[in-house]
Design goal:
122 residues; alpha+beta; 3-stranded antiparallel beta sheet; two-stranded antiparallel ribbon; globular
Length: 122
Amino acid sequence: MMKRAGSMTTSSGSTIQVRHMGDTEFSIRMRGHEIVVDLPREAGGSDAGPSPTQLLVASLAAGVAFFGRSFLHAQGLPDRINVNARWSIELTPTRVDRVDVPPRHRALHSAQHAARSAQDPL
């Protein structure tokens, strides 16, 4: 469902259901798809799927790749893009400390370099 809020168009999201399957395993259902998340064996899980943290970082990386590709395509540039995501975890308290999601595309790197050069005074 699309709604108009002032000059901005918004869309209501679909429902995502998360169901506890047992121990550290959860099933996530959306739009007819199912993803299972779990912890690795060394962290006390059964390794039935990626960890929730891995899925979070993968979602961020997929978003960067998807929207980066859309931008490149709209600019008439080659739109093959790769993303490698890295993250770190802080242990006290336990939380995701940092996520790096740099896109890998020559045209994007050239544009980023040009933008930085334009901002740097001589």
